[in-house]
UniProtKB/TrEMBL annotation:
Renumbered residue ranges of the record's region Disordered: 31-54, 173-204
Span of domain Rho-GAP: 235-424
PROSITE patterns: PH_DOMAIN, RHOGAP
Name listed for the protein in its UniProt record: Uncharacterized protein
Transmembrane segments: none
Species annotation: Coilia grayii
């Protein structure tokens, strides 16, 4: 088996590492720190040769901090990392992959695939992370990753091979441009000759076709042309609303309509969890089908719909209460005078971006209707606030005050539920 099948190689080595760690726990660091490099050309990966890209594989810690220009919350995780053909692939640990009818314990799933062409790599500044040995990788499409490993020699080796790979890709790119220029000169001469015989048009078509085939379009350009559909789950609220030309995501509205039509009297409507496998199936359907119908028989279980709605809200890169407003809402809930507290809360809600404000208003109005049926569904203001507080409101960086924050998060949601009419009163 070679690195021509990086997914298979990653799975085999990952399983090998896992078995070694299971039976030889005292060698855990030795196994991960000495993962060998591989090269399809048979050359040492430490020595770059023109026309041969470097290859390497090993365990690293990583987090994605920017996605196409949008800042993300740091979420460090261990990843089996494979460098092959100028592509850096971070794989999920098979044990952490979501369960479902098609999941298998021995599958290794690529989490991020990074094209290093046009990228930059540097040692991260201290304000980027408190961890040591952190690399900052920026891609040409505006995404950024932090890569880290405790052992100095390992992370230094990764730094060298990634820098060499990026440099090699840039050299190859310029070489291709020079070849294109040479080909353009030849094409112009051929075009002059063929113009005398009436073949100029065919020459231009061949040139354009060759250039088109040689230049692979970027992922962003493919998305802009509509060939790849962006997901609904995990998408920034403003991006999703802009794409749908609305201020409230369609999936949120569909879930709310379904719940209010046939679920308001269901016991523990948002407190009881639905079947995770069915929720994941609904998520996949929402990501790939614009015409999702929640009245379809397969979504009959109302806890599947409420579970999918909560999952959608949890997976938003930035919560419904934006990060920049978190401590402002915390300060508002601490005000001792109740009237001033409500007034300040109203001002904060009114100053939210329109998609956040409108989605929040639709969601809280729906939760008020759920609470009105509390005798049947046993959902009170307090229990609803406990369910939705940490989901709707969280700091960008977790701190030691997480327990205290959770109390305030619940209190903020509870206050807005109690004072809904006042907080969302038209100006």
């Amino acid at each position: 088996m070679t690195l021509s099948d990086p997914g298979a190689v990653a799975l085999q080595i990952w399983n090998t590492v896992s078995i070694l760690q299971l039976f030889f726990p005292s060698h855990r660091r030795h196994v991960s720190d000495n993962t060998s490099d591989a090269s399809s050309s048979g050359n040492s990966p430490e020595t770059p040769h023109h026309g041969h890209l470097l290859e390497k594989a090993g365990i690293l810690n990583k987090t994605k901090v920017v996605d196409n220009g949008k800042k993300l919350r740091k979420n460090w995780s261990q990843s089996w990392t494979v460098l092959h053909g100028g592509i850096l692939t971070f794989h999920k640990d098979p044990k952490s992959a979501p369960s479902g009818p098609s999941s298998k314990s021995n599958q290794i799933v690529p989490e991020y695939t990074v094209d290093l062409r046009g990228g930059t790599l540097m040692w991260a500044a201290k304000d980027k992370s408190s961890k040591k040995n952190v690399l900052e990788l920026k891609t040409r499409n505006g995404s950024e990753y932090l890569i880290q490993y405790d052992t100095d020699s390992i992370i230094t080796d990764w730094h060298k091979i990634l820098v060499d790979t990026i440099r090699q890709l840039d050299q190859d790119h310029f070489s291709e441009e020079d070849e294109d220029d040479g080909e353009n000169d030849k094409d112009r001469k051929r075009s002059l000759r063929s113009s005398q015989s009436g073949d100029a048009d065919q020459g231009r078509v061949r040139t354009k076709l060759r250039k088109f085939l040689q230049r692979r379009p970027t992922l962003q350009s493919v998305k802009e042309k509509g060939y790849i559909k962006d997901a609904v789950f995990g998408c920034h609220l403003d991006t999703l609303c802009h794409r749908e030309n609305t201020t409230v995501p369609r999936f949120v509205e569909k879930c709310i309509r379904a719940v209010e039509r046939r679920g308001l009297d269901v016991d523990g409507i948002y407190r009881v969890s639905g079947n995770l496998a069915v929720i994941q199936r609904l998520r996949h359907k929402a990501d790939h089908d614009d015409n999702l119908d929640l009245e379809d028989g397969q979504w009959e279980e109302i806890h599947v719909i409420t579970g999918a709605l909560k999952l959608f809200l949890r997976e938003m890169p930035e919560p419904l209460f934006p990060f920049s407003f978190f401590y402002k809402f915390i300060a508002a809930i601490k005000i001792s005078d109740y009237g001033q507290k409500v007034s300040y809360m109203q001002d904060l809600v009114r100053s939210l971006p329109l998609p956040n404000h409108n989605t929040m208003e639709v969601l809280f109005r729906h939760l008020r209707r759920v609470i009105e049926h509390g005798e049947a569904n046993r959902m009170s203001v307090q229990s609803t606030a406990i369910v939705f507080g940490p989901t709707l409101l969280r700091p960008q960086t977790e701190s030691a005050n997480i327990t205290v924050h959770m109390v305030f998060q619940n209190q903020i949601v509870e206050l807005i539920l109690n004072e809904f009419e006042e907080v969302f009163k038209p100006r």
